[in-house]
Amino acid sequence: MGRPSRHDADHLLDVAVALAAAGGPGAVTAVAVAREAGAPSGSVYHRFPGRSALLAALWLRTVERFQEGFLAALETMPATEAAPTAARHVVAWSRAHPRECGVLLYGAADFGERHWPAEAQERLERANGRVAGALRALAGRLGRDDVERIVIATVDLPYAVVRRHLVSGRAIPESAESTVADCAVALLEAS
After folding, report:
1. 19-48: buried (b, 16+ CB within 10 Å) or exposed (e) per residue?
2. Which domain holds residue 107?
3. Fewest C-beta in 10 Å: which of 4, 22, 153, 161?
4. How many structural domains compose the chain?
5. Is 42 within a domain?
6. Does residue 48 contact residue 57 with C-beta atoms inside 8 Å?
7. What is the enclosing helix (H) or strand (E) of 79?
8. What is the percent of the chain with per-residue pLDDT over 70, rounded to a whole number?
9. Residue 2: pLDDT over 90
């Protein structure tokens, strides 16, 4: 049995998250990840053949981890509870994972999406398609044809609250969860 790797892909991506949170997407290079991880650069290149593959893996792992709970709220909650629960998830996840949230506050394009390997671009398209489908399905379950209002209630509004706190360097208060949930309900009941 071989020795377990000291520098597995998840550890290297954890380091990349920290670099991105501190210095933005430009700070994430194979050399910087290797240096911060205390790993030989070959360990990084063995797992990520180039910077675009590293950035793609960083973005995809982060967004998929976030989307797991977001999708669970949209797809498993009763229709009237789904939007406020999804909005609450955005804030709760962001508070629990401020570095990863910092990554998502950029965007895939900031992480060089157009240069990603085709497989990574397809994976992102599938992930985003699943979210779009879940939002449309929720609109249908609520008997609404305005998906945009649901996107504002579950994505835009909670991210605005999260962004304001993270950009200012302040922790997201626990009360923000109930605030965005209440706003989601009010927005969807207003029409």
Report:
1. bbbeeebeebbbebbbebbebeeebbbebb
2. 9-189
3. 4
4. 1
5. yes
6. yes
7. helix 79-96
8. 97
9. no
